[in-house]
C-alpha cells in the first residue's frame, strides 16, 4: 500500500511541480519530437504491413480463401506490425529525448531539495551516452522478454495473461530508464543501478506502466507522458535513495 501511495501521489504532484519549477515548455519539445517520430513510424508501418500482407498473399494463395478469412488475415498482419513498431517507437523515443529528460530530472531535484548542479560539458556527454546505453539495453531486454512471453502464449493458461505480462515487462524496463536519470547523478554505476532496480522492481513497473497508460491517451498522451513520468519518477527515486548506502556520494561539481 505504501508503494502505491507514493507512486500515485508523486504522479499527482508532478502536475503541480511542472508549474512551480517552470517546466511547462518541456511539454512541447518531447511532444513535437514524438509527433515527428510517430509520423515516420506510421508511414513505415503502413508500408511494411502492406508488403508483408502482399508476400503472404502470394505465398499462401490467400486469394483462394473466402473474403472474410482473407480480410481477417490482413488485419492480423497489420496489428502485429503496429504492435512491433510501437515497441520500437517508444524505446527509440526515450533514447532520443534522454538528454532532455536527464535535464528535467536535474531541475526537479533542484526544485525539491535545493541542491545545485554544475556539471561540466564532459559530464553531460557522459550522461547522454549512459542514457543511450541504458535505453538500448532496456529495449533489447524488452524485446527478448516480449518474444519469450509470446512463445509461451501457446501454453494454456499462460496465453490468457499475455497482455498483462507484456505490459509488466514494458513497464519494468521503461520505469528503469526513467529512474536512471536520477541514479546517474548519485555515482551509481550501471551495474549498481541494476541492483537498485531489482530491489525496487515494483516501483519501476508501476512508473513504467503509468507512463504507458498516459502515452496511450490520444494526442495529448505523447506530450504529457514523458514529462510527467520523468518528474514523478525523479521524486520517487529520491525518496528511495534516502535509504540507499551511497546516497551521500552525489556529484556536485
TrEMBL record:
Report the membrane topology from the UniProt record: Multi-pass membrane protein
Top-level division of the source organism's lineage? Bacteria
One Pfam family for this entry, by name? EI24
What are the entry keywords?
Amino-acid biosynthesis, Cell inner membrane, Cell membrane, Membrane, Sulfate transport, Transmembrane, Transmembrane helix, Transport
Where does the UniProt annotation locate this protein? Answer: Membrane
> Which residue spans traverse the membrane?
26-45, 65-88, 139-158, 203-228
By its UniProt entry, which InterPro entries does this protein fall under?
CysZ-like, CysZ/EI24
Principal localization reads: membrane
**Entry annotated with the keyword Secreted:** no
Q: Does the keyword Cell inner membrane apply?
A: yes
Q: What is this protein called?
A: CysZ protein
Q: What is the scientific name of the source organism?
A: Fusobacterium mortiferum ATCC 9817
Amino acid at each position: 500500500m505504501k508503494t502505491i501511495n507514493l507512486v500515485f501521489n508523486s504522479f499527482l504532484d508532478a502536475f503541480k511541480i511542472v508549474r512551480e519549477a517552470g517546466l511547462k515548455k518541456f511539454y512541447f519539445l518531447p511532444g513535437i519530437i514524438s509527433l515527428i517520430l510517430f509520423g515516420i513510424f506510421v508511414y513505415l508501418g503502413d508500408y511494411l504491413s502492406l508488403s508483408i500482407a502482399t508476400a503472404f498473399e502470394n505465398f499462401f494463395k490467400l486469394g483462394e480463401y473466402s473474403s472474410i478469412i482473407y480480410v481477417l488475415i490482413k488485419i492480423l498482419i497489420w496489428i502485429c506490425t503496429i504492435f512491433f513498431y510501437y515497441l520500437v517507437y517508444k524505446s527509440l523515443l526515450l533514447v532520443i529525448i534522454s538528454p532532455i529528460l536527464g535535464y528535467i530530472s536535474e531541475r526537479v531535484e533542484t526544485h525539491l531539495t535545493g541542491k545545485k548542479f554544475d556539471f561540466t560539458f564532459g559530464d553531460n556527454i557522459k550522461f547522454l551516452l549512459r542514457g543511450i546505453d541504458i535505453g538500448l539495453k532496456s529495449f533489447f531486454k524488452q524485446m527478448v522478454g516480449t518474444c519469450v512471453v509470446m512463445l509461451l502464449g501457446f501454453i494454456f493458461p499462460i496465453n490468457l495473461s499475455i497482455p498483462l505480462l507484456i505490459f509488466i515487462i514494458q513497464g519494468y524496463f521503461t520505469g528503469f530508464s526513467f529512474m536512471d536519470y536520477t541514479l546517474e547523478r548519485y555515482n551509481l554505476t550501471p551495474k549498481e543501478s541494476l541492483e537498485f532496480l531489482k530491489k525496487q522492481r515494483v516501483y519501476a513497473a508501476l512508473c513504467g506502466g503509468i507512463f504507458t497508460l498516459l502515452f496511450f491517451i490520444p494526442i495529448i498522451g505523447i506530450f504529457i507522458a514523458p514529462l510527467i513520468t520523468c518528474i514523478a519518477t525523479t521524486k520517487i527515486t529520491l525518496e528511495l535513495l534516502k535509504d540507499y548506502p551511497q546516497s551521500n556520494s552525489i556529484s556536485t561539481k
